[in-house]
């Protein structure tokens, strides 16, 4: 009996020692490096990923309380430095040239392509970004994209039945198909049905562990990419063989030979995937959350609706909105900024170091990832008094948008090139939605805020026509 007790005690002690050693392993492994910021590294391989994904914002705040606003951790398979220091975050975003380049996960880079904007830096980044701005920048928006967006939105929102709908599903549909139509106008209707499921796979794959075996999200994502590449190559061949000109982004990319932004076929394909990918979740989630906040805040809703009714009153029924109408939507713009801030549609951005570097007195080793975590700045009471209140009026002071620490659309050389396009799409969506429909929330809808904003079972609203 005594022997049995001894054996059990030894096993327990051994188990405890193994667990303890494993928990300390990452700490010991990375602890040898001199000058790193303080922090904990968690379990081998997994690090602190589970705590990070499960408790997100509270995990970050807890670590900041223990270690300060720059700390080390091990998340999503990599040793990572988290910066929650607004001043340092700004420095990092403004100084890509000093070796602080994008540090997005390998799965994302593999699936979005090696010419994807997040995978390139220096002159290659300038080239790809220049081409992108020539397709979606403010000049093109005003003269070419606005009429198309208006037409799309009018038709998209024209005949919703008076019923309970999942607005998350609809805004997802809106955000993807509007970009798709701008890229391949002619083929869009027939191709979209085959394209969408492959794009959904690609999307999931970018957020997975890069393990390429059948059954994994990464494998499916990769297959999705390959099928999308095949479809795009086929359209490109057909367009080159035809003498017909089309008024869409693909045609502009294909007939750009004389421009300084002429791209190879591989670059064109990755550029198209980038536009579809970057403008998808951001635009759809902001639109969905704006609908939610407007329902919950009748005064803001009333002011927004008045803005749009006033525009409609100056027009004939069915007449399109023009640039001046869009420019007059200042309260709508404020609602979009307040929605992005309060919901924190983007929690932060990822960078990595190209060489050892000193930040805030700590040495960050070459190749380490830095999570520029901007979420907490959105709730800073000095910048946004009563930060947990939905108060669009605060954005009517235009200086707030260009405030040094407003990172809703990123900053520095990577500032979102789709910012104005995204705001225009959401504004047009809101214009036709609030002038056509009344709505109320149906049942209780749960919203998750981390790691991404989503309604896991949908956001159901009952709509009726005005
Ligand atoms: C409400 C809508 C949007 C939000 C909140 C948003 C937010 C952001 C943020 C925070 C970044 C910085 C990423 C970084 O520094 O690594 C970014 C970059 C980017 N965004 Fe947006 N975005 C929106 C809409 C769009 C749209 C509609 C497009 C394109 C059609 C777009 C295309 C891009 C691209 C290509 C980049 C990378 C820029 C670069 O690396 O130079 N975004 N966006």
From TrEMBL:
Q: Which positions bind heme?
A: 416
The protein's location, in the record's own words, is: Membrane
Chief location bin: membrane
The UniProt entry, under PROSITE patterns, shows: CYTOCHROME_P450
* One biological process term in Gene Ontology: brassinosteroid homeostasis
Required cofactor names: heme
Enzyme class comes to: oxidoreductase
Database matches in InterPro entries: Cyt_P450, Cyt_P450_CS, Cyt_P450_E_grp-I, Cyt_P450_sf
Write down a Pfam family by its short name.
p450
Q: Which domain of life is it from?
A: Eukaryota
Q: Which reaction does it catalyse?
A: 6-deoxotyphasterol + 2 reduced [NADPH--hemoprotein reductase] + 2 O2 = typhasterol + 2 oxidized [NADPH--hemoprotein reductase] + 3 H2O + 2 H(+); 6-deoxocastasterone + 2 reduced [NADPH--hemoprotein reductase] + 2 O2 = castasterone + 2 oxidized [NADPH--hemoprotein reductase] + 3 H2O + 2 H(+); 6-deoxoteasterone + 2 reduced [NADPH--hemoprotein reductase] + 2 O2 = teasterone + 2 oxidized [NADPH--hemoprotein reductase] + 3 H2O + 2 H(+); 3-dehydro-6-deoxoteasterone + 2 reduced [NADPH--hemoprotein reductase] + 2 O2 = 3-dehydroteasterone + 2 oxidized [NADPH--hemoprotein reductase] + 3 H2O + 2 H(+)
- Bilayer topology: Single-pass membrane protein
Give a GO molecular function annotation for the protein.
oxidoreductase activity, acting on paired donors, with incorporation or reduction of molecular oxygen
Show the GO cellular component annotation of the record: membrane
SUPFAM superfamilies recorded:
Cytochrome P450
Q: Which UniProt keywords apply?
A: Brassinosteroid biosynthesis, Heme, Iron, Lipid biosynthesis, Lipid metabolism, Membrane, Metal-binding, Monooxygenase, Oxidoreductase, Steroid biosynthesis, Transmembrane, Transmembrane helix
Assigned EC number:
1.14.14.179
Q: Entry's PANTHER family?
A: CYTOCHROME P450 26, CYTOCHROME P450 85A-LIKE
Q: Which family does it belong to?
A: Belongs to the cytochrome P450 family.
Q: What is this protein called?
A: brassinosteroid 6-oxygenase
Native source organism of the sequence: Durio zibethinus (Durian)
